[in-house]
């Protein structure tokens, strides 16, 4: 039933939203969003930890740990969090792009290059399938990323308050 509409699809295979979704789901960085919470947070913590390799020496140069341990720690933590934010923004933009492509009634595609773009209107069964994927697969991922951003914003707020106390 769905196969006939998809087989008549003029969109090149690698530009079909469903295939882009499947590819993103298995891509190195983006698959972290599909893991359970524990594995997801663990991977974010590893990114944060590796970021200390850069932010730690910068924070130590600004606030020697022997004299200003609290400021050193807060500055290093905030600096390391910037890498996490950049990674999360990249993941969010990738997943949002795929969400938009799946949710749209039309698909813009390129036949052989940037100069000959076309638009394909999805048949109703393909549109329904794609929107179900958005609702049950992609929305939870985007909500997880938004929740992570909110958690980081909360930690920055707490860090700012603690900074002013010292």
Automatic annotation (TrEMBL):
Keyword rRNA-binding found: no
InterPro entries noted in UniProt: CGLD27-like
Short name of one Pfam family: CGLD27-like
Domain of life: Bacteria
UniProt keyword annotations, A-Z: Membrane, Transmembrane, Transmembrane helix
Record field: transmembrane: 40-63, 69-93, 147-165
PANTHER family to which the protein is assigned, alphabetical: PROTEIN CONSERVED IN THE GREEN LINEAGE AND DIATOMS 27, CHLOROPLASTIC, PTHR34214
Name this polypeptide is given: CGLD27 family protein
Organism: Nostoc cycadae WK-1
């Amino acid at each position: 039933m769905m196969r006939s509409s998809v087989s008549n699809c003029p969109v090149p295979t690698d530009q079909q939203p469903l295939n882009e979704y499947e590819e993103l789901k298995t891509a190195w960085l983006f698959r972290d969003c599909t893991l359970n919470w524990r594995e997801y947070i663990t991977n974010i913590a590893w990114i944060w930890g590796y970021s200390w390799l850069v932010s730690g020496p910068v924070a130590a140069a600004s606030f020697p740990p022997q004299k200003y341990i609290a400021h050193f720690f807060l500055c290093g933590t905030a600096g390391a969090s910037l890498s996490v934010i950049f990674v999360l923004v990249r993941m969010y933009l990738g997943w949002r792009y795929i969400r938009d492509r799946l949710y749209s009634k039309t698909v813009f595609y390129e036949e052989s290059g940037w100069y000959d773009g076309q638009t394909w209107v999805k048949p109703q069964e393909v549109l329904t399938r794609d929107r179900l994927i958005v609702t049950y697969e992609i929305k939870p991922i985007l909500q997880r990323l938004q929740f992570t951003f909110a958690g980081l914003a909360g930690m920055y707020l707490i860090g700012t308050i603690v900074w002013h106390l010292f």
